[in-house]
């Protein structure tokens, strides 16, 4: 998030160009460097979906990048969202996964 506001950031450049109405394909085709956030967003989005995690920022960025959602509308949706606890919303199956791992690593207690 730190570099996304810098005028020198490739991710910032992509975002600014999207708000001007350019397509992601056109932006990426004309860039000589990689904007890591574009591919990272796709990976994070797919991981969140596979684990049924709620990630509104990632979901909205993904929709802007890959589903032609309006960037200004996506920002409005996020800014208008009611502030809630970070664990509110859909089940956080990620924590369930960690509990399962921990349970496997914990030796069974034998009362005998």
TrEMBL record:
Residues 1-75 form the Glycerol-3-phosphate dehydrogenase NAD-dependent C-terminal domain. One of its GO terms (biological process) is carbohydrate metabolic process. It holds the Pfam family NAD_Gly3P_dh_C. The keyword Transferase does not apply. GO terms for molecular function: glycerol-3-phosphate dehydrogenase [NAD(P)+] activity. Its EC number is 1.1.1.94. Keywords: Oxidoreductase. GO terms for cellular component: cytosol. This is Glycerol-3-phosphate dehydrogenase (NAD(P)(+)).
């Amino acid at each position: 998030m730190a570099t996304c506001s810098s005028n020198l950031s490739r991710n910032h450049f992509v975002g600014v160009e999207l708000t001007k109405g350019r397509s992601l394909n056109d932006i990426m085709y004309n860039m000589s460097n990689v904007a890591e956030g574009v591919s990272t967003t796709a990976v994070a989005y797919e991981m969140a979906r596979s684990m049924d995690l709620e990630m509104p920022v990632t979901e909205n960025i993904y929709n802007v990048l890959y589903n032609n959602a309006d960037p200004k509308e996506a920002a409005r949706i996020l800014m208008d969202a009611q502030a809630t606890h970070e664990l509110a919303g859909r089940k956080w199956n990620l924590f369930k996964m960690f509990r399962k791992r921990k349970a496997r690593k914990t030796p069974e207690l034998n009362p005998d």
